[in-house]
Design a protein that fits this description.
three-stranded antiparallel beta sheet; three-stranded parallel beta sheet; about 110 residues; 8 strands; mainly beta
Length: about 110
């Protein structure tokens, strides 16, 4: 699954990941696939052990996105900012009336 492209980072790199899509408890949704909590944790642990980043920052705008990061080891130097906690939906509440578009989550 995926394109086969990989991040070629090392111990000096700060890695930023921005994800905006759908989610559920322990899962993030892509148009044609899903990323499950166990798979994400395995990849992050491997990247940490292999020194593939100095620091990693995640910004995740999806329902239940907090469920993907609530058990990360504090020693991995990974920070995650999520649009919702482990057991709540994320929903848009800031609307630009002129553009007729929602701009942010609550």
């Amino acid at each position: 699954v995926g394109s086969g492209k990989t991040l070629k980072s090392n111990h000096k790199d700060v890695v930023f990941v921005n994800f905006v899509d759908h989610g559920g408890p322990g899962v993030l949704g892509f148009p044609n696939d899903e990323l499950h909590l166990a798979d994400l944790n395995n990849v992050l642990q491997t990247m940490h052990q292999d020194k593939r980043f100095k620091q990693m920052l995640w910004y995740v705008e999806a329902c239940y996105s907090g469920s993907m990061f609530n058990k990360l080891s504090p020693n991995m130097n990974i920070t995650a900012h999520t649009a919702s906690n482990t057991d709540e939906s994320s929903y848009a509440c800031v609307k630009d009336e002129e553009l007729d578009v929602y701009l942010g989550d609550c």
